[in-house]
Amino acid sequence: MYVVIVGAGRIGYNLAKMLIDAGHEVTLIERDERRVREVGTLDAYVLHGSGINPALLESLNIQSADAIVAVTGDEAVNLTSCLVAKRLVARTKRDKPFITVARITDPEMERPFTELGIDRVISPEKAAAEYISSLIRSPGVVDVTAIGEGEAEVLELHIDENSPVIGKTLAEVSAMGDMSASTVIAVYENGRLIIPHGDTTLKAGMRVLLFCKTEESRKARKLFLGR
């Protein structure tokens, strides 16, 4: 499968890595030159440019791609990238479907994007809120409903006195082990929600909500819980 990803932020980078690890061909487009250099270690074609540029998409042989996934922080760029790619692909005869996936930041934009022809609309913020809500309604649940066809899941991890991450920031925890396939989406302390950042310090009694690939869940548990 050949996938073109627009946006090399955290979502785009991790998606590219997952697809590459699964044996798929990936091209990554990023308009920030510094970020292009940062993700240059990926086994993918990473280039500086804009996903809304028809000439650029054609130069990447978008007509032979299986999908375009636009996950920048700009909804307009994501929408336009998908529609431009879809129009270019429609000019060619092909015997396989072409899928467009666009990220939105405002959940209310899901319907307009779909009506405009986007095949899949994703909202990480909405997904995180739904999973957090599910955990709040079901105290003690660790593994929340699997995502997709079971490729990923959200874990609730209780940090106790024996956890190896006590006193460490999330940035330091990331350096302790490979977290490229995991993302901390929320931290709770005494029932209070803390939006996680790299300098968030973990303490005994905290609950950490972690989004990760299912195959990496055991590694994530061991990293945070030591068992």
Describe the structure.
- Mean pLDDT is 86; it is low at 137-141.
- Strands 3-2-1-4-5-6 form a 6-stranded parallel β-sheet, sandwiched between helices.
- The two termini are 37 Å apart.
- With 227 residues, it is of the alpha/beta class.
- The chain contains 8 helices and 10 strands.
- It folds into 2 domains: 2-122, 3-Layer(aba) Sandwich (Rossmann fold), CATH 3.40.50.720; 126-225, Alpha-Beta Plaits, CATH 3.30.70.1450.
What distinguishing features does this structure have?
227 residues, alpha/beta, Rossmann fold, 2 domains, 33% helix, 23% strand, elongated
Which structural category fits the helices and strands? alpha/beta
Strand content: 15-25%
The total tally of domains equals 2
Mean pLDDT: 86
> Which word captures the global form?
elongated
Under the CATH scheme, the architecture of the largest domain is: 3-Layer(aba) Sandwich
- Using only C-alpha atoms, the radius of gyration works out to 19 Å
Fourth-tier CATH superfamily name of the largest domain: NAD(P)-binding Rossmann-like Domain
Please report the number of helical segments: 8
Major beta-sheet overview: 6 strands, parallel
Number of strands: 10
Q: What series of H and E elements makes up the topology?
A: EHEHEHEHEHEHEHEEEH
Q: Could you name the ranges where pLDDT drops below 50 across 5 or more consecutive residues?
A: 137-141
CATH class of the largest domain: Alpha Beta
- How far apart the termini lie comes to 37 Å
Estimated helix fraction: 25-40%
**Spatial sequence of strands, sheet with the most strands:** 3-2-1-4-5-6
CATH topology of the largest domain: Rossmann fold
